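Need tokens for this chain, all 280 residues.
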Amino acid sequence: MQVIESVNEMQSLAVKLRHQGKLIGFVPTSGYLHAGHLSLIQLAQDQADVVVVSCFVNPKEFGANEDFGRYPRDRERDLQFCREAKVDVLFLPKEEEIYPAGFSSTVNEEKRGSGLCAISRPHYFKGVCTLHAKLFNIVRPDQVIYGRKDPQQATVVAKMVEDLNFPVEIAVGPTVREPDGLACSARNTYLNEFQRRDARTLYQALMKGKELVDNGIRNVDRILAEVTFHISQIRRLRVIYVHAVNKHTMEFERQIVPGQTLVVTSVWCDEVRLLDNMEL
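Here are the structure tokens for all 280 residues:
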């Protein structure tokens, strides 16, 4: 496995690989890799000749009072993880490589990135788009793999790619869950035993909504009320949002369309923000 820290070195390698006719699959991450990332790496390996993984905690995605300093980082753990996963190239840039002194440009998608998480984190998707636009120019991927665990991010980036004519295919892999149902996330490490016990209610509540749809109910308000009710039974959990959206556009749905509608939710578990969703 080749480990690269320099933007110029990564860009030069990408140009060389493309000249050789190699298809590049890319999995951008914030590091502290887990089983969800492994599934995305494996999807990329199925499609591409060369798989590049990046690990970079993006400061532009975090607000002043958020968890940028606390976000888990473990370089050696990520190196070992990628070696065992047979990743071809691990891109580990430092902040000054991505955002050198004097950096003053931003990229923003203003439609799909205007609701849901953006209501309470208005800076987030501008940070996502700015970083990923840079990464696409550095890594030159043919295909980029995202996880369904954060569907709004995937659709925002897909719209940016479409609008700005990046020659990149966006693919989305399924959410991977831990044995108790909690969606894999680096932030799960913040949870103590009692918080984790309560956090798994999020998955259980989404399953209650899916059961109603499987039994023929299509009324959005009924489904959302069921999910919200089950979450609200846990005192430690505080709902940020629960919505039914189109999985491709993030627009609110008025009627459940099986295979198209996602129930998306974000909650506070004490001071830990959790995301989850389920396709109905």
